[in-house]
Design goal:
The structure is a single chain. With about 500 residues, this protein is α/β, with parallel strands linked by helices. It has 16 helices and 18 strands. It has helices spanning about 10-15, 40-50, 85-100, 120-135, 165-190, 200-210, 220-225, 230-235, 280, 290-305, 350-360, 375-385, 395-410, 445-450, 485-495, 495-500, and strands at about 1-5, 15-20, 60-65, 70-75, 105-110, 155-160, 215-220, 245-250, 260-265, 265-270, 310-320, 330-335, 340, 370-375, 390, 410-415, 430-435, 460-465. Strands 7, 8, 9, 10, 11, 14, 15, 16 and 18 form a nine-stranded mixed β-sheet that branches. Strands 1-6-5 form a three-stranded parallel β-sheet. Helix 4 links the parallel strand 5 (about 105-110) and strand 6 (about 155-160). Helix 4 (about 120-135) packs parallel to helix 5 (about 165-190) and helix 11 runs parallel beside helix 14. The radius of gyration is 24 Å and the shape is elongated. It starts with a strand and ends with a helix. Bound molecules: ligand BES and zinc ion (2 copies). One zinc ion binds next to loops.
């Protein structure tokens, strides 16, 4: 979609202008877009609003009797949109409705969505990002319809304050870039495992990196052997697909600035391995590389935004398969760190491959490491569908994540990472155990605690378990499948890099 900040007259006169109303402002002539419509049409709109029994979020597609122009009337509640969270959902709802009605363009009056306590720029950014997110659907393998896809081609934005056109346009571009890159990540996640193998994920990362100026290097199994990455190689040994470690470097900050490293779980299909998953759990497991997709999306968004930072993305990519060559329960793998990992359950593979990726990350001497992984079913049980888990040895850092999550729309919530939990992941035949002794109690925390054993050299570290938000739910007003969660949080962390990387822990 093309996003442009323009004049109110253009938005009013173009196709698909959105006009918000509350019962208090039923006089539609007071709406800033109304002055560009024919007076009789405005009277008609007012009459419609008065007569309608709509409530918050209801939409009415109106063809104006005089000009025959199509307007989308949106009820924004008696007292206006109640919260920023609700504003996000409303923008998505409008976009999806407009798309279903075959609008080729959509026009927002940004002030309609501005809430107290936020700026017009942030509001515009939110609209652009969320219209992109709501517009996306996974259709790569679907036949092209005879009369084409119902795509919205252009979104325009207007505001009362014409002096702000330039800053609003900039904000709109930021939002659109984030939305587009998140959708690229969703596309990677939604792609079936037969297409999105570790090698093809690496190829996609190379392509995306080349397009946006991120240098990408791929470490194959031969080099992994030299690096003694026994954990990644161990998980991967049951698959005919070669494991890959994807390394994306975007070093555009001062040389003296230590980088932020993102690590994303890239299990392109998780059967569970010898501890085979039941049928019900298998269908979505091509999305077990969603943490990796999030990292690819975030690093490319940061590059597109030309942020002056040093960021590295690291994605261990494997397929977890049962076969004659698989790793087994009871096996002991020697990780790159030297620590041995006792395999209690081959389905707890994510934490195992992340261990080697963490050790690899040490070479960057990062100021902060954030890992993103669809790590545990337990996280879904703990948190439900609307937020993902964050764990950090520093409460201050974890709290900062929830704040940035709220700002970005990528809601996350802390789980404890207290030392008491360490005893449950101590190994008997190896140093650490990948499936805790007290399984399934505190499964998300035990996984976090396992990862922590390999993260102790980092001055700041946060683990995001995005299993709970891997796929969208209907109430989020997104198409079904991958939600792209985590990307916005990573971008927001980088936008606040100075503060986050200097936090006292
Ligand atoms: N990829 C799964 C976790 C998952 C489940 C993500 C559902 C998204 C949706 C992970 O590898 C896994 O299977 N974890 C096990 C760990 C257990 C064996 C200790 C789990 O959560 O059951
Ligand atoms: Zn698993
Ligand atoms: Zn997994």
């Amino acid at each position: 979609m093309k996003h442009t900040c323009t004049s109110s007259s253009r938005v009013a006169l173009g196709e698909g202008a959105v006009m918000c109303y509350t019962s208090q402002t039923q006089e539609m002539k007071k709406h800033p877009l109304a002055s560009y419509l024919l007076p009789d049409d405005v009277l008609y709109l007012t009459a419609l609003c008065k007569a309608s029994k709509s409530t918050y979020g209801d939409m009415l597609l109106v063809t104006l009797p005089k000009s025959l122009k199509k307007i989308l009337l949106v009820h924004c509640g008696e007292n206006g949109i109640p919260s920023f969270r609700k504003a996000i959902l409303l923008v998505r709802k409008i976009t999806r409705y407009a798309k279903s009605q075959s609008f080729s363009s959509l026009g927002f009056f940004v002030d309609d969505f501005k809430l107290a306590g936020t700026t017009l720029e942030r509001t515009a950014e939110m609209i652009a990002e969320n219209s992109e997110l709501a517009h996306y659907e996974f259709r790569t393998f679907k036949e092209h319809p005879k009369d084409g896809w119902k795509d919205i081609e252009a979104v325009s934005y207007a505001t009362k304050d014409s002096k702000k056109t330039h800053t609003i346009q900039k904000a709109v571009m930021v939002g659109a870039v984030c939305g587009e890159q998140i959708n690229i990540g969703r596309e990677l996640s939604n792609s079936p495992a037969g297409h999105m193998t570790p090698k093809s994920l690496a190829q996609e990362a190379l392509k995306i990196g080349k397009k946006w100026g991120v240098s990408v290097k791929v470490v194959g199994e031969k080099e992994m052997e030299k690096l003694k990455m026994g954990a990644i190689l161990g998980v991967s040994q049951g698959s005919t697909e070669e494991a890959q470690l994807i390394v994306m470097e975007y070093l555009h900050g001062p040389k003296s600035q230590k980088p932020i490293v993102f690590v994303g779980k890239g299990v392109t299909f998780d059967t569970g391995g010898i501890n085979l998953k039941p049928s019900a759990g298998l269908g979505e497991m091509h999305m077990d590389m969603s943490g990796g997709a999030t990292v690819i999306a975030a690093v490319s968004a940061i590059a597109r935004l030309e942020l002056k930072v040093n960021v590295v993305g690291i994605i261990p990519a494997v397929e977890n398969m049962p076969s004659g060559s698989s790793y087994r329960p009871g096996d002991v793998l020697r990780s790159m760190s030297g620590k041995t990992i006792e395999i209690g359950n081959t389905d707890a593979e994510g934490r195992v491959i992340m261990a080697d990726a963490f050790t690899y990350s040490e070479r960057y001497e990062p100021a902060l490491v954030v890992d993103v992984a669809t790590l545990t079913g337990a996280c879904m049980v703990a948190l439900g569908d609307y937020t993902f888990g964050v764990m950090s040895p520093s409460d201050a850092v974890a709290k900062k994540m929830t704040d940035l999550g709220e700002i970005s729309g990528d809601y996350c919530w802390p789980l404890p990472l207290w030392e008491e939990y360490e005893q449950d992941i101590k190994g008997t035949t190896g140093d650490v155990l990948n499936a805790a002794k007290n399984h399934p109690r505190g499964g998300a925390i035990n996984a976090g605690m396992f990862l922590y054993q390999f993260a102790k050299k980092f001055p700041r570290w946060v683990h995001c378990d995005i299993a709970s938000t891997m796929t969208s739910v209907p109430a989020q007003n997104l198409s079904s499948g991958a939600s792209g969660s985590g990307t916005r949080l990573l971008v927001e962390i980088v936008r606040n890099a100075k503060e986050v990387t200097s936090m006292k822990v």
